[in-house]
Write a structure and sequence with these properties.
globular; alpha/beta; Rossmann fold
Length: about 160
């Protein structure tokens, strides 16, 4: 078996609410993490609870790698499902890192932090699929809109199609 080169491995963020996430959002995020692992992607998330923990749980259950970019300086705050926990010490500014290191973003549900990650990824012209959460209207001439998905399967499919994989 040959090992994939780092540039060949897609890094996909799953973002969404932390402690305020609903059970339905967590179920979708867990499924997305599992599907991403099955397609060889590295999961990127904010490293805490809610959607982030659920996505990491799914990725690990699927045999994948889950990387969390924590807002604080203490790795002990990381959720238990991460393969790698990076304590950034940046607070909510770590949202820029989540969007920046990822090739694409899947947003499950929504909160202000989620909205910032969507905006930063769109600004960098990265594919974004949104399941539930807020509707984003992009002014005419401002570029593409996030891709709307109704399930984890659809979101992962849209992201991989947009990445040409």
């Amino acid at each position: 078996m040959t090992r994939a080169e780092p540039a060949d491995v897609p890094y996909v963020a799953v973002v969404g609410p932390g402690d305020g996430a609903t059970p339905a959002e967590c179920a979708v995020a867990e499924r997305a993490g599992w599907l991403l692992a099955g397609r060889g992607a590295v999961l990127i998330c904010g490293g805490l609870g809610g959607v982030m923990a659920a996505a990491a749980k799914g990725a690990r259950a699927g045999g994948g790698t889950a990387v969390g970019l924590l807002p604080g300086r203490d790795r002990a705050t990381a959720n238990a499902f991460l393969s790698v926990a990076l304590a950034t010490g940046l607070g909510e500014l770590r949202n820029g890192l989540v969007a920046g290191v990822s090739d694409a973003v899947i947003a499950v549900g929504g909160s202000w932090g989620t909205h910032s990650e969507i905006a930063l990824a769109m600004r960098a012209e990265k594919p974004v699929a949104v399941i539930g959460g807020w509707t984003v209207r992009v002014p005419a001439g401002a570029g593409a809109c996030p891709l709307a998905a109704s399930s984890a399967e659809e979101a992962v499919g849209l992201i991989f199609a947009a990445l040409g994989r």
